Amino acid sequence: MADTARHNRARLKRTVVLVGMMGAGKTAVGRALAARLGVAFRDSDQEIEAAANMTIAEIFARDGEPFFRRKESQVIGRLLDGVPCILSTGGGAFLSEANREMISNRGVSVWLDASLDLLWSRVRHKDTRPLLRTADPKGALTALFEARVPVYRLADLSVATQPDYSIDDTAGRVLEALATRPDILEPLS
Ligand SMILES: Nc1ncnc2c1ncn2[C@@H]1O[C@H](COP(=O)(O)OP(=O)(O)O)[C@@H](O)[C@H]1O
Ligand SMILES: O=C(O)C1=C[C@@H](OP(=O)(O)O)[C@@H](O)[C@H](O)C1
Ligand SMILES: [Mg+2]
Q1: Cys-Cys with 30: which of 7, 87, 88, 148 at CB 3.0–4.6 Å?
Q2: What 3-state class would DSSP assign to 93?
Q3: Is residue 83 in a domain?
Q4: Residue 8 lies in a domain
Q5: Is any ligand 2 atom within 6 A of the Cβ of residue 130?
Q6: How many domains does the chain have?
Q7: Which residue, judged by its Cα, is nearest atom 9 of ligand 1?
Q8: Distance 76 CA to ligand 3 centre (A)
Q9: Is 189 inside a domain boundary?
Q10: What is the CATH number of the domain that holds 33?
Q11: Are 159 and 86 in contact (CB under 8 A)?
């Protein structure tokens, strides 16, 4: 394969689960990270949308958030049972203790840590996220940020994202964090 040389010479031993707020870059960085490692990329929201043939917003509107959360847990459990991959989750997934336990037993969690200002700059122009479809989306994002950050701190690893980092820069920083853990990323000679 022409691009094999681009792949870091390392074997992924556990599924890397990206967690963090909406707009942190879990989907975008996860895809870039998977390409760099030469492993599959999965996104729990995309899996749920494909299975339902509906958008996340449609699922929330028709079936409600508790239904979505059950689907999210099922997808995460199923993907953690498979070959190690990069799995980007939706921002609420890590809030569930049962999900955190599955991830910690079978994968490794990486928190993409971003400031509230950066998150808001990324999500403000999109209306795809049902939890922000309120009269005060910035207030909703702020409340979620304050409630969730203490939980994201429970992740195994954290990587700071900054406004001047590209998607690929951030993927590189996640790789650096993973490289400190040979039980997750085994170097190949
Ligand atoms: N490091 C980055 N630099 C520039 N844009 C980014 C970066 N990370 C994410 N983005 C952009 O921000 C938006 C939200 O990213 P996304 O990956 O959907 O976040 P999440 O899955 O965490 O909600 C997307 O438009 C994405 O392209
Ligand atoms: O924070 C949340 O609870 C959610 C985040 C979204 O995913 P992203 O974090 O990828 O935007 C999506 O799962 C859904 O809208 C709920
Ligand atoms: Mg996403």
Answers
A1: 88
A2: helix
A3: yes
A4: no
A5: yes
A6: 1
A7: 25
A8: 14
A9: no
A10: 3.40.50.300
A11: no
